[in-house]
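Usage

Read records sequentially. Each one opens with the input sequence:
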Amino acid sequence: MVRMMIGLAVGCAVLVPGPVFAQQNRFSDVPKTHWAYAAVQELAQKKIVKAEPGGKFMGNKPVTRFELAVTLAKFLKYLDIRELKGKAAAQSAPLSLKFQPLTATVISLEGVSDVVVDKGWRDGMKPEMALTIRRGGKDAGTILATDVQERRTICSAGNARLGVKPGDKVYTRPATIRPTLTGGKPLPKSDPAYESLVWLVSWGYVPANSKLLMDGNKPVTADEAASALGRAFSRSIEKGDIVGDPEAAQDRPHTH
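and closes with the structure output:
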Protein backbone atom coordinates (compact mmCIF):
# COMPACT_ATOMS: atom_id res chain seq x y z
CA MET A 1 0.00 0.00 0.00
CA VAL A 2 1.40 3.40 -0.89
CA ARG A 3 2.06 6.22 1.54
CA MET A 4 -0.59 8.53 0.08
CA MET A 5 -3.40 6.05 0.71
CA ILE A 6 -2.26 5.43 4.31
CA GLY A 7 -2.09 9.19 4.92
CA LEU A 8 -5.55 9.74 3.48
CA ALA A 9 -7.08 6.90 5.51
CA VAL A 10 -5.63 8.21 8.77
CA GLY A 11 -6.16 11.88 7.99
CA CYS A 12 -9.79 11.59 6.97
CA ALA A 13 -10.85 9.06 9.60
CA VAL A 14 -11.36 11.53 12.43
CA LEU A 15 -9.12 14.53 11.95
CA VAL A 16 -11.03 17.49 10.58
CA PRO A 17 -8.71 19.50 8.30
CA GLY A 18 -8.52 23.24 8.81
CA PRO A 19 -9.08 25.69 5.96
CA VAL A 20 -6.82 24.65 3.12
CA PHE A 21 -6.12 28.24 2.13
CA ALA A 22 -4.63 28.94 5.57
CA GLN A 23 -2.14 26.07 5.46
CA GLN A 24 1.44 26.22 4.29
CA ASN A 25 2.28 23.53 1.74
CA ARG A 26 4.80 21.34 3.55
CA PHE A 27 5.51 19.00 0.62
CA SER A 28 6.81 20.05 -2.77
CA ASP A 29 5.23 17.03 -4.50
CA VAL A 30 1.67 17.50 -3.12
CA PRO A 31 0.11 20.49 -4.93
CA LYS A 32 -2.98 22.21 -3.55
CA THR A 33 -5.01 20.66 -6.35
CA HIS A 34 -4.17 17.12 -5.24
CA TRP A 35 -7.13 15.09 -3.95
CA ALA A 36 -5.29 14.21 -0.70
CA TYR A 37 -3.77 17.64 -0.09
CA ALA A 38 -5.89 18.65 2.93
CA ALA A 39 -5.49 15.33 4.78
CA VAL A 40 -1.73 15.17 4.20
CA GLN A 41 -1.20 18.78 5.32
CA GLU A 42 -3.26 18.19 8.46
CA LEU A 43 -1.19 15.14 9.40
CA ALA A 44 2.03 17.08 8.89
CA GLN A 45 0.75 19.96 11.03
CA LYS A 46 0.04 17.51 13.83
CA LYS A 47 3.53 15.93 13.46
CA ILE A 48 2.06 12.55 12.52
CA VAL A 49 3.92 12.47 9.19
CA LYS A 50 6.98 14.36 8.03
CA ALA A 51 8.74 15.15 4.79
CA GLU A 52 11.19 12.80 3.16
CA PRO A 53 14.64 14.16 2.23
CA GLY A 54 14.19 16.97 -0.27
CA GLY A 55 10.92 18.14 1.25
CA LYS A 56 8.78 15.57 -0.56
CA PHE A 57 5.94 13.43 0.76
CA MET A 58 6.65 10.56 -1.67
CA GLY A 59 3.01 9.51 -1.78
CA ASN A 60 3.63 6.64 -4.20
CA LYS A 61 6.33 5.09 -2.02
CA PRO A 62 5.31 1.70 -0.56
CA VAL A 63 4.85 1.72 3.23
CA THR A 64 6.44 -1.03 5.31
CA ARG A 65 4.66 -2.70 8.20
CA PHE A 66 6.87 -0.89 10.72
CA GLU A 67 6.32 2.49 9.01
CA LEU A 68 2.57 1.98 9.24
CA ALA A 69 2.94 1.09 12.94
CA VAL A 70 4.89 4.29 13.67
CA THR A 71 2.37 6.49 11.80
CA LEU A 72 -0.56 4.78 13.49
CA ALA A 73 1.01 5.13 16.95
CA LYS A 74 1.65 8.87 16.45
CA PHE A 75 -1.93 9.36 15.28
CA LEU A 76 -3.39 7.54 18.28
CA LYS A 77 -1.06 9.34 20.67
CA TYR A 78 -2.30 12.65 19.26
CA LEU A 79 -5.89 11.56 19.94
CA ASP A 80 -4.90 10.51 23.47
CA ILE A 81 -3.40 13.93 24.26
CA ARG A 82 -6.36 15.70 22.66
CA GLU A 83 -8.75 13.64 24.79
CA LEU A 84 -6.98 14.42 28.06
CA LYS A 85 -5.72 17.96 27.54
CA GLY A 86 -7.69 19.46 24.65
CA LYS A 87 -6.96 20.31 21.03
CA ALA A 88 -4.55 23.20 21.68
CA ALA A 89 -2.29 21.06 23.86
CA ALA A 90 -2.33 18.22 21.35
CA GLN A 91 -1.21 20.59 18.58
CA SER A 92 1.93 21.64 20.49
CA ALA A 93 2.78 18.61 22.65
CA PRO A 94 5.58 16.28 21.52
CA LEU A 95 4.22 12.89 20.42
CA SER A 96 6.45 10.81 22.68
CA LEU A 97 5.69 7.11 22.36
CA LYS A 98 7.75 5.97 25.30
CA PHE A 99 5.54 3.76 27.44
CA GLN A 100 4.65 5.66 30.61
CA PRO A 101 3.30 3.40 33.35
CA LEU A 102 0.16 4.56 35.11
CA THR A 103 -0.02 3.91 38.86
CA ALA A 104 -3.09 4.03 41.09
CA THR A 105 -4.16 3.17 44.62
CA VAL A 106 -7.01 0.90 45.68
CA ILE A 107 -9.56 3.03 47.57
CA SER A 108 -12.36 0.51 48.18
CA LEU A 109 -13.85 -2.89 47.34
CA GLU A 110 -17.30 -3.31 45.78
CA GLY A 111 -19.56 -6.32 45.39
CA VAL A 112 -17.89 -9.72 45.40
CA SER A 113 -15.17 -9.17 42.81
CA ASP A 114 -14.70 -5.45 42.04
CA VAL A 115 -11.88 -3.15 43.07
CA VAL A 116 -12.08 0.66 42.94
CA VAL A 117 -8.91 2.69 42.27
CA ASP A 118 -8.27 6.43 42.54
CA LYS A 119 -7.52 7.19 38.87
CA GLY A 120 -10.05 7.89 36.12
CA TRP A 121 -10.22 9.01 32.52
CA ARG A 122 -8.77 12.43 33.33
CA ASP A 123 -5.65 10.59 34.54
CA GLY A 124 -5.33 8.49 31.38
CA MET A 125 -7.22 5.40 32.49
CA LYS A 126 -8.90 3.51 29.65
CA PRO A 127 -11.57 0.80 29.49
CA GLU A 128 -10.09 -2.72 29.43
CA MET A 129 -6.76 -1.46 30.74
CA ALA A 130 -4.95 -4.23 32.61
CA LEU A 131 -3.51 -3.24 36.01
CA THR A 132 -1.06 -5.34 38.01
CA ILE A 133 -1.52 -5.48 41.78
CA ARG A 134 1.71 -4.81 43.68
CA ARG A 135 1.96 -6.10 47.24
CA GLY A 136 5.00 -6.72 49.41
CA GLY A 137 7.36 -5.88 46.58
CA LYS A 138 5.84 -8.55 44.33
CA ASP A 139 3.20 -8.74 41.62
CA ALA A 140 0.04 -10.31 43.04
CA GLY A 141 -2.40 -10.62 40.15
CA THR A 142 -4.11 -8.55 37.47
CA ILE A 143 -7.36 -6.56 37.47
CA LEU A 144 -9.20 -5.10 34.47
CA ALA A 145 -10.66 -1.58 34.20
CA THR A 146 -14.37 -1.88 33.39
CA ASP A 147 -16.12 1.35 34.47
CA VAL A 148 -13.85 4.36 33.90
CA GLN A 149 -15.20 7.49 35.57
CA GLU A 150 -13.73 10.98 35.80
CA ARG A 151 -11.57 10.48 38.89
CA ARG A 152 -11.96 6.80 39.74
CA THR A 153 -12.24 3.44 38.03
CA ILE A 154 -14.08 0.26 38.95
CA CYS A 155 -12.05 -2.80 38.02
CA SER A 156 -13.04 -6.42 37.71
CA ALA A 157 -10.66 -8.51 39.80
CA GLY A 158 -12.15 -12.00 39.91
CA ASN A 159 -9.92 -14.36 41.89
CA ALA A 160 -7.19 -11.70 41.97
CA ARG A 161 -9.22 -9.79 44.58
CA LEU A 162 -8.29 -12.30 47.27
CA GLY A 163 -6.18 -10.38 49.78
CA VAL A 164 -6.62 -6.99 48.08
CA LYS A 165 -7.22 -4.12 50.50
CA PRO A 166 -7.48 -0.32 50.34
CA GLY A 167 -4.04 1.23 50.02
CA ASP A 168 -2.66 -1.47 47.72
CA LYS A 169 -0.90 -0.13 44.63
CA VAL A 170 -1.70 -1.13 41.04
CA TYR A 171 0.16 -0.22 37.86
CA THR A 172 0.23 -0.74 34.12
CA ARG A 173 3.14 -2.57 32.56
CA PRO A 174 4.45 -2.57 28.98
CA ALA A 175 3.66 -5.50 26.74
CA THR A 176 6.39 -8.02 25.99
CA ILE A 177 6.84 -8.19 22.23
CA ARG A 178 9.26 -9.83 19.80
CA PRO A 179 9.05 -7.93 16.51
CA THR A 180 11.16 -9.22 13.64
CA LEU A 181 12.68 -7.98 10.42
CA THR A 182 12.50 -9.96 7.20
CA GLY A 183 14.21 -13.30 7.69
CA GLY A 184 13.28 -13.50 11.38
CA LYS A 185 16.02 -11.17 12.64
CA PRO A 186 14.88 -9.46 15.87
CA LEU A 187 14.13 -5.74 15.66
CA PRO A 188 16.65 -3.88 17.87
CA LYS A 189 15.09 -2.15 20.85
CA SER A 190 16.93 1.00 19.81
CA ASP A 191 14.90 1.18 16.58
CA PRO A 192 12.19 3.91 16.70
CA ALA A 193 9.61 1.38 15.49
CA TYR A 194 10.16 -0.79 18.60
CA GLU A 195 8.88 1.91 20.95
CA SER A 196 5.83 2.48 18.74
CA LEU A 197 5.01 -1.23 18.66
CA VAL A 198 5.30 -1.59 22.45
CA TRP A 199 2.95 1.39 22.86
CA LEU A 200 0.40 0.02 20.37
CA VAL A 201 0.31 -3.48 21.88
CA SER A 202 0.36 -2.27 25.50
CA TRP A 203 -2.77 -0.16 25.00
CA GLY A 204 -4.59 -2.81 22.97
CA TYR A 205 -4.60 -1.03 19.61
CA VAL A 206 -2.64 -3.85 17.96
CA PRO A 207 -2.69 -7.51 19.05
CA ALA A 208 0.64 -9.13 19.97
CA ASN A 209 0.27 -11.55 17.04
CA SER A 210 -0.38 -8.80 14.46
CA LYS A 211 1.44 -9.02 11.14
CA LEU A 212 2.73 -5.52 11.83
CA LEU A 213 5.20 -7.14 14.25
CA MET A 214 6.50 -9.73 11.75
CA ASP A 215 8.77 -9.13 8.75
CA GLY A 216 8.48 -5.44 9.55
CA ASN A 217 10.43 -4.14 6.56
CA LYS A 218 8.02 -5.80 4.12
CA PRO A 219 5.61 -3.49 2.28
CA VAL A 220 2.23 -3.55 3.99
CA THR A 221 -0.65 -4.86 1.89
CA ALA A 222 -4.01 -3.12 1.55
CA ASP A 223 -5.66 -5.89 3.58
CA GLU A 224 -3.08 -5.61 6.38
CA ALA A 225 -3.42 -1.83 6.48
CA ALA A 226 -7.22 -2.01 6.51
CA SER A 227 -7.16 -4.57 9.32
CA ALA A 228 -4.73 -2.53 11.45
CA LEU A 229 -6.52 0.77 10.87
CA GLY A 230 -9.95 -0.75 11.46
CA ARG A 231 -8.97 -2.30 14.79
CA ALA A 232 -7.20 0.85 15.95
CA PHE A 233 -10.15 3.10 15.11
CA SER A 234 -12.59 0.69 16.75
CA ARG A 235 -10.49 0.60 19.90
CA SER A 236 -10.24 4.40 19.90
CA ILE A 237 -14.02 4.69 19.77
CA GLU A 238 -14.38 2.14 22.59
CA LYS A 239 -11.82 3.99 24.69
CA GLY A 240 -13.45 7.36 24.04
CA ASP A 241 -10.54 8.91 22.11
CA ILE A 242 -12.64 9.59 19.00
CA VAL A 243 -15.48 11.96 19.76
CA GLY A 244 -17.55 14.32 17.66
CA ASP A 245 -16.37 17.48 19.39
CA PRO A 246 -12.75 17.29 20.57
CA GLU A 247 -13.01 20.61 22.38
CA ALA A 248 -15.79 19.18 24.57
CA ALA A 249 -13.88 16.02 25.43
CA GLN A 250 -12.74 17.29 28.82
CA ASP A 251 -16.27 18.00 30.00
CA ARG A 252 -18.12 14.91 28.86
CA PRO A 253 -19.05 12.02 31.20
CA HIS A 254 -16.73 9.10 30.58
CA THR A 255 -18.42 5.98 31.82
CA HIS A 256 -18.34 2.72 29.91
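Summary fields computed downstream for this record:
- The CA atoms of residues 75 and 173 lie 22 Å apart.
- The mean pLDDT is 82.
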